[in-house]
Amino acid sequence: MPPDSPTESAWASLIRDVPDFPSPGIVFKDIAPLLADADAFAAMLAALAGPWRGAGIDAVAGIESRGFILGAALARELDAGFVPLRKPGKLPGAVLEEAYALEYGNDRLQLQAEAMPPGARVLLVDDVLATGGTLAAGARLLQRQGAQVVGAAVLIELAVLQGRMRWPCAAPLRSLRVV
Ligand code: AMP
Question: Does residue 91 come out as left (phi exceeding 0), alpha (psi in the -120 to 50 range) or beta?
Answer without folding.
Answer: beta
